[in-house]
């Protein structure tokens, strides 16, 4: 099944994406937020967590970060589990830069963190230590762009370039409520042009041309990039009188999960639902492989080393096995879905038939009643 962009987030859908061997041990998924100070990164982290774990049965799994100026790289986690599938969701919240007169190299601690996680994993793989718990390789990095309405600043371009060579990068526009829809649309256009001009490699989902529906979803995802986001930890009343997370203004209310107000829901679906699996795979296959080769070169080994070749062959074998398992599972889900749809259709047809029968019975009862009334009237008249 191809997940629709607007469909609600359901943790129970995670197994559809990453259901392989990890199902027993669980899978790690790490998101990182980066950007200038005060753009709402920490607020966004809290908003995302509360929207994901809202109805979660175990209150201890609710994790809330203290709101304040973030001064060091902070890690927030939540273990999400449903139907036996575990996802260890981690968000790496970084201190905002831009507070200093000279912001040159402000991105160094952030990219160092990403590199260190990759290198630590190479080391741990070399030791065949499969029980290492703290795998913090970043699968997706959200870069917060201030909603200036102009275009990317040289600092944004520099940081995004540095990040995109190491990690799946998704640019987001912070505080969507501070721009009008028209200003937001042209701001997005200018950012897209700037990204293309500077050849910044932002995350692009793979397009499956054989599946027109999923190709359309992917195109829609790319058309909405960079995503505008909203953060709020406050409950407000929307126009329909419902209590929602949002921000209240004199002129009205902006709602975090209203698709007309920001791309929050689209972005959440993309990273947590529809493309989590691809973000994990591309991190392993592209970014981690790059770091691994670099580490090998640094340690004087090459990919031709017999030990390295044997390990690579084993990895390829395991990857292929995982891939075939994944395909088998997806196919099974698809068949079950089709079976369910058919059953649902039969049920609807049966309901319609019964309704029709009921209607006909109702009509004949009515006709009989009228006949009885007529007969009574005639009888009374003949008296
Ligand atoms: N208008 C508006 N304000 C927001 C939004 N998100 C966060 N804020 C406000 O922006 C301020 C800064 O938010 P933080 O989440 O601390 O920002 P940060 O990016 O984590 O800042 P640093 O930790 O210094 O890097 C707070 O007063 C938030 O209430 C938003 O979507 N719209
Ligand atoms: Mg912060």
From TrEMBL:
Entries under PROSITE patterns matching the protein: G_SEPTIN
A single MF term (Gene Ontology): GTP binding
Superkingdom of origin organism: Eukaryota
Domain Septin-type G stretches: 25-298
A single cellular component GO annotation: septin complex
Keywords: Cell cycle, Cell division, Coiled coil, GTP-binding, Nucleotide-binding
Pfam name, any one: Septin
Gene3D superfamilies with a match to the protein in the record: P-loop containing nucleotide triphosphate hydrolases
Positions in coiled-coil regions: 311-378
Any GO BP annotation: mitotic cytokinesis
Family statement drawn from the similarity comment of this UniProt entry: Belongs to the TRAFAC class TrmE-Era-EngA-EngB-Septin-like GTPase superfamily. Septin GTPase family.
Protein name per its UniProtKB record: Septin-type G domain-containing protein
Annotated organism of origin: Clydaea vesicula
């Amino acid at each position: 099944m191809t997940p629709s962009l607007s469909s609600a987030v359901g943790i129970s859908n995670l197994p559809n994406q990453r259901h392989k061997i990890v199902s027993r041990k669980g899978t790690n998924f790490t998101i990182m937020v980066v950007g200038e100070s005060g753009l709402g990164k920490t607020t966004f982290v809290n908003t995302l967590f509360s929207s994901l774990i809202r109805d979660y049965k175990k209150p201890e799994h609710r994790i809330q970060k203290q709101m304040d100026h973030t001064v060091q790289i902070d890690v927030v986690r939540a273990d999400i589990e449903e139907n036996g599938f575990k996802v260890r969701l981690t968000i790496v919240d970084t201190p905002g830069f831009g507070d200093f007169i000279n912001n040159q190299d402000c991105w160094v601690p952030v990219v160092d963190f990403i590199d260190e996680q990759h290198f630590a994993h190479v080391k741990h793989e070399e030791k065949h230590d499969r029980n290492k718990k703290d795998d913090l390789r970043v699968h997706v990095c959200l870069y917060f762009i201030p909603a200036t309405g102009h275009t990317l600043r040289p600092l944004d371009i520099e940081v995004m370039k540095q990040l995109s060579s190491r990690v799946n990068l998704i640019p987001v526009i912070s505080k969507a409520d501070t721009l009008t829809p028209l200003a937001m649309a042209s701001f997005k256009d200018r950012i897209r042009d700037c990204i293309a001009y500077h050849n910044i490699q932002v995350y692009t989902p793979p397009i499956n041309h054989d599946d027109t529906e999923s190709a359309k979803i992917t195109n829609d995802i790319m058309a909405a990039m960079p995503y505008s986001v909203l953060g709020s930890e406050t409950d407000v009343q929307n126009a329909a009188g419902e209590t929602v997370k949002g921000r209240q203004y004199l002129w009205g209310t902006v709602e975090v999960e209203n698709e007309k107000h920001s791309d929050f829901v689209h972005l959440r679906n993309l990273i947590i639902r529809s493309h989590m699996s691809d973000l994990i795979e591309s991190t392993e296959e592209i970014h981690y492989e790059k770091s691994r080769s670099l580490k090998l070169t640094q340690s004087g080994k090459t990919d031709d080393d017999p030990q390295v070749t044997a390990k690579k062959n084993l990895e390829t074998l395991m990857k292929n096995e995982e891939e075939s398992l994944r395909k088998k599972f997806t196919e099974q889900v698809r068949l079950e879905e089709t079976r369910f749809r058919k059953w649902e259709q039969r049920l609807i047809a049966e309901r319609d038939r019964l309704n029709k029968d009921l209607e006909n019975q109702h009509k004949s009862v009515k006709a009989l009643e009228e006949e009885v009334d007529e007969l009574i009237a005639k009888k009374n008249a003949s008296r």
